[in-house]
Amino acid sequence: MVKVVEDIFGIAVNPFNKQAQVIRRYTITNTNRLSVSIIQLGATVHSISVPDAYHQTADVVLGFDDVAGYSKYRDYKFGCCVGRVCDVVNNGEFIMDERRVIVSKNLDEKHQIDGGYVGFDKVIWDLHMKRPDGVTLRHVSMDGHEGFPGNLAVMIHFTIDDDNRFFIRIEATTDQTTAVNISNHIYFNLAGQNTGLDGIFGHRITIESDETMETLEGQILTTGQFKDVTDSVYDIRLPVFMGDRVRQFEKSFIPGYDVCYAIDKEFDANITRYVGRFLHPESGRFMEIFSNQPSIRFATANNFPQELHGEEPILGKRCTRYWQHAGFSLQPQNYPDAVNQPDFPRIFINPGENYFHETIYHFGVQESWKCCADPDELEQMGEESIKT
């Protein structure tokens, strides 16, 4: 049985009317001690608490204990909803219905990223309803906001079940043809949000994808082309240790993963597909991802402060210091810059049509390798993953 508890998380300034507003938190818990907390600011996943193989529960989502933390580090987008169009819009413009649409340019004053200056991550979402298994939050993005046409009504349903599945379902309708590509940006660490690099590098990861989106230098702007992952560091179709792979980036100008994987070019929003699996062997926690979106952006918090360079850390929950690679983020979505790529899955919706995005995170435990695996075997598997 699932239950929902509401409390007050803090107070934030509404970006539209500049008035102070109470931010509420909704905590959803099932009979297996899986617990998910959602806050109204940014429709943010504040925490996910999951038991391990030893029945010890830990929060596996990076974030903050108060509104001040989310406000101070808002550009990192901890756990929040991202839109109206997530990822990048090259040159901050696109052609729609034979007319040029120019949107705000919050990236180098040339491009738009993650919905503009006041994207969905900075909005205080309204509670639409409490559900028996979760909550639904709602926001209406007004016509012309950040340059996008149409009044876009968005609802996000956050629910869990007793099979330890966490569902994020996003729906949207419009009164004018407009572009929509909404997602959620959670930083995970299945070892526990406070375990840092040691916890992250111990993960074994897989994403079932043969290709990534080709990008220009900087990993943001896309060329619209795909690259085969074979014989590259981006090939994680078979399980590899995250630490082994991230270390292979040390001689690159990119310090880790920040890449969009193609999941299914034959996009059908009615089909929710298996995307990948993340396992922390020592605790036994695993997370499987399913989505109806054609791609997923996977990143290893490369832009977090670097301890070796003497930078100030991000101060997270319970005064945890978040350094570079302290977590990994997953963002199921349509392809980057799909508004400018006619061969990509359709990103525009018309009046009377419904946008639908579904992501499912399935959590579980398996017997810990610490108890059952031979140390020499683990070392050999790590070496094999480096050679891959």
Explained architecture:
With 388 residues, the chain is mostly beta strands. The protein has one domain (3-387): Beta-galactosidase, Chain A, domain 5. It has five helices and 29 strands. The protein has helices at 67-72, 196-201, 242-247, 369-372, 375-387; strands at residues 3-13, 20-29, 35-39, 44-51, 57-59, 80-82, 88-89, 93-96, 99-102, 112-113, 126-131, 134-141, 152-160, 165-174, 178-179, 183-188, 204-207, 211-215, 222-228, 240-241, 258-262, 273-280, 285-291, 295-299, 314-315, 321-322, 328-333, 348-349, 355-365. A nine-stranded antiparallel β-sheet has the order 11-12-13-14-29-23-22-17-20. Strands 6-16-27-24-21-18-19 form a seven-stranded antiparallel β-sheet, with no helix packed on it. The model is unreliable at 371-388 (pLDDT under 50). Keywords: Carbohydrate metabolism, Isomerase. GO terms for molecular function: aldose 1-epimerase activity; carbohydrate binding. Pathway: Carbohydrate metabolism; galactose metabolism; Carbohydrate metabolism; hexose metabolism.
